[in-house]
Amino acid sequence: MNWRFTMIDLTQSPSVSTILTEKDGTFYEPIGWTECEIEIKRDEDLRGVFFDYSFSSLKYTQMAYSILEAAYDNFGIKANVQLLIEYYCPDCDNCDYAFFYRAQFNFMDYKKTVGDFCFIDVPLETSSAMLQFTNLYNQKVDLENLTAFDLKTPLNSYSGIGQVITLKNKTVIERTVADNTSVGIGDAQFGPQPISYPLYNDQQFIVNGLDGRISGFFMPPFANVRAIEVLQSFIQYPNIGINTNTNIQSVQIAYSSNIDWGSISGQYLVYRPRLLPINIANVVFVGPANININFKGVFSDVSGVGHGSFRICLVSYLVDVNGNRTMNSVIYESDPYAVTSPSQIIPFAWTYSNPSYNLQPGEGLWFGVIYSLFSPDCKPNFTFDGGNFINITAATSYVDTPCKVFFVQETMSRIAENITNGQLPVVSDYYGRVDSQPYAAQQDGEGGLRVLTKGLIMRGLQARQAVLNAQGGYLNNFNSSQSDILNNVNIFALSFQDVFQGLDAIDCIGLGLEDDPTRPGQQRIRVERFDYFFQDTVLMTLDNVYEIQKETKSGKFFSLMNFGYSKWETNSYDGLDEFLTKRQYRSTFTTVSNTLDKTCNFVTSGYAIEYCRRESGDSTQDSEFDNDHFLICVLPLSLNVPRLQFTDAHTLYITGTVIVLTIGGIFSVSGTGINDGNYTVVACTRNIVQTSPTTVYGGDSIITVKETFPSPGVGQYSGTIKSVSPRLFEAEQGNVTTTSGEVDQSTTFMVDPSTVYNYRLSPFRNMLRWMKYLLAMYQNPYSADSMFIFVDGDGNYFATGQQADPAGKMENSDVKESQNLSIQIMKDQAGNMPIFKLEEDSLQYPMSADQFVAIKANPYGLIEYFHDSSDVRQGWISKISYQPVSGMAKFTLIPKR
Predict the structure, then answer these.
(1) What is the pLDDT at residue 205?
(2) Whole-model pTM?
(3) Per DSSP, what are the bridge partners of residue 667?
(4) Dihedral sign, CA of 486, 487, 489, 491?
(5) Partner of 818 for a Cys bridge, out of 227, 464, 797, 897, CB 3.0 to 4.6 A?
């Protein structure tokens, strides 16, 4: 075998290629070439197969020495020189030198020796682009920056980067709960305990100057008080006294009755929606409240001088946008319990239940006891029965808001292109779409309709403006400087490591290099499900192998597996309903102690998304999710609009939703009869939230179209608007069904299943997407003990149902988030059978340069091998160490099942 080496100096412009020769004109070989090895290795984490040289012993002299020395002296570690290796077989007639390999010198480890024998030692890497990609794998990139890492290479603009979608309401149940359940003493009895509450022990009565007697109020001293709400409740512990205006959280109530309500300053406030700057009634929609109160106990006066009365009250008041509070109504006020004689014992009992109290935005409720006209010398004492409680819940919703998002395919490509100066774009069938860039897929991939964003963007200026629109604040004079602020105020930066690890935890994916057919001579990065990198094409056959050694890969067997999401809880929400949380499973092995951690750092929680949306009404406070990265499943835009009005031949008036369209884009209208059809956007004359290239219409919108409406006029319609070209998107919600067809809280164990986000990304389904990989641990996947057993979880692991959309559906029936996993629950059991054994076969065998080139062209194919023909095996490359000069190779293969 004859070899030819060419150095290509890319630091010169134009680049200079030099075929290395000896002084006598024969071809030059670096010192150590005869002993060198090429290593072909499958990356344990990326799962793709990569080529590398272990050329640490190669030394360059003569002509090669001069080229490397000049490159380093002029450019240092930024020097860009490649080595092209070609081969020629003397036994082949009419053959020329053929391509063998091309590698990049890594000047970071440049070494030069000067003496009697001068040489330069520089290790080789696979390629300059892959070297850059590896070195900058964890480098964060501003996704909207169109200049590469070198600060000069321009990058293409992608429509999937910074597109605006519509986020809709996630129904949230607001809760205010208080009770006197407490831990027992002594024998550690648990359960409701009576509470003795002597009013005279912890306050100083202020005597009424008119008659020398006292009046006041208090809230029962519940031991457990919880405000688990989206819109911020105030819950205050008992505050006792008269005219105590020192409490900064006090709430004044103005109401005239037998009790001077104006004298009451401290309150126990059981519900209050967050106040937004203007017109809160149009922003937060509160459904009927379910109120349940249980209040029982005994009054006594241990002083023996008591005379007076007390009553039980539930009252309502309103808080306006300026914080002023006015009495609304008395929901309940008991008849007075009269204390007419010393040492009198008076039992009281009250139960209140209203499942549909029409709670208004800004309304507060107060519950407590009013006492009046007691002597200052009396010692009133209340003992409350165990099990007293207040439980108030209400379903709330929020206006639609726009959100700038970044599709997964375009995000990965943008990062890779940035850190490799445009050399390595990303292609994916799994994450691609029919309109994805820079490469379109033949169909929308199972992971293609997913977008990334961050909390600060979700609740940023665009969302705030949509809230303003819903309140009636129109933007007819939205200037370009404001648009620039909206476009640039929130930088979204991610590293390839962030994206790959987050998606891998959900989908079990791999990454590899391949030749780019659209750019001859260049490569691209391929990202797909892991099994893409284990293909069935047989690359070569190794017959009559002298010896095959088998070894179990013990590190690939796991006892515990963690799936789900690392962050999901909000400080303001009821996390008991959130199913996009953490899960832990175990295998049935007793001799394994390894743990697989595939917890995703992206936030997918619908409650967290809703928290950020509702924070859009507050521009002054930081949010707990501002800098977190969100992953959201989307669908092509299809909005049900409650009111469409065709005001003239080219003008459409839209009310009731946030619509995201592009100038020049085409949308369809349906449900309006004769005016149904496709229309092209020409302009928007009201509620422009963001200008070129996207216009966001929110609340009430007036748009002008190119085409003529067949029937203009004052008629009002409800209808559906869909994007036609370009495709625009909205968040996917619901996607839940059950075998019975019932989809409600009682069957799915989720609050309002129709508004949940990311159901297809539940931890259970993430685990299902990993089943084809994980089942390789079991010898027989159909065996009764070949399962993964639920161990623990957070939040709502009782959520039950199945994915409604058949695309990407993994389960074959209703599943519960906390049930055990086995192959039997898979919709496609044959397609999810494991493909390899957790073993490695090692052997040595000759390999020609032609075979090496063939493997390099398809490193994911199978190698067939056998010691004798009665036991033919096939396996995928784990590692090959190839010596080109000797033609021998050491194979380490992953056996196919």
Answers:
(1) 41
(2) 0.82
(3) 679, 723
(4) positive
(5) 797
